[in-house]
Amino acid sequence: MSSSVPLEFQSPENIGSSEELARAEVYGLLAELFFAPPSQDLFDQLRVAVTEAPMAGAFLERSWGELVGASRRLSLSAVEAEYVALFGGVGKPAVCVFASWYLAGALNQQPLVQVRRTLELLGLERPQGVLETEDHIASLCEVMRYLIAGDDLSVSNLAAQQRFFNSHLRAWVDGLCDALSAQAQANFYRAVADFARDFFAVEAQGFDLLEV
């Protein structure tokens, strides 16, 4: 990924890639933000990002502007502390980021088994050194990014994207976003949740219209 800033909100002279690549970049950005606090480089990109899409009223403009605005108001150290308060700590975190929690009420349940079966069929596996299970929202977003931007068209295609999104993301991502938005300590990540909710809604609408 050449940039973590979605193509729709880069300067017009930098826009030359397809809508599909833009989608992949959004999934990559969400994966980064949910997996860990933003790196200094990513945070710097967000703070200087264009907040108006090249075409008025374009996709995600409002929630993207709020995310960029939050990155400009807050320091990176504040965002790092917020991430720990929301997703870290000892015991159950304030906000859980695993599909099993929302779909089955506990961690490491059938939704995780189903994700692992799908990844096996796709020829994918959890990287060594990664402790989070495969139903982590960041992991699922990374798989979607691969299914959009991967070179193997027998795997990376619209039909595979639709199946994976509908099977492993669609039913629970709004619950995650709602849980984040409800947290009093959420500031930067409330903006992330709003952006993610809008993006996933557009994805769902697009897949509903898709005939594959």
From TrEMBL:
Q: Which UniProt keywords apply?
A: Chaperone
Record flagged with keyword Chaperone: yes
- Annotated signal peptide: none
Q: Does the keyword Nucleotidyltransferase apply?
A: no
Q: Which sequence ranges form a coiled-coil region, renumbered to this chain? A: none
Q: Which InterPro entries match?
A: DMSO/NO3_reduct_chaperone, TorD-like_sf, TorD/DmsD_chaperones
- Indicate what this protein is called per its UniProt record: Molecular chaperone TorD family protein
The organism encoding this protein is Roseateles albus
Question: What are the leading ranks of the lineage?
Answer: Bacteria, Pseudomonadati, Pseudomonadota, Betaproteobacteria, Burkholderiales
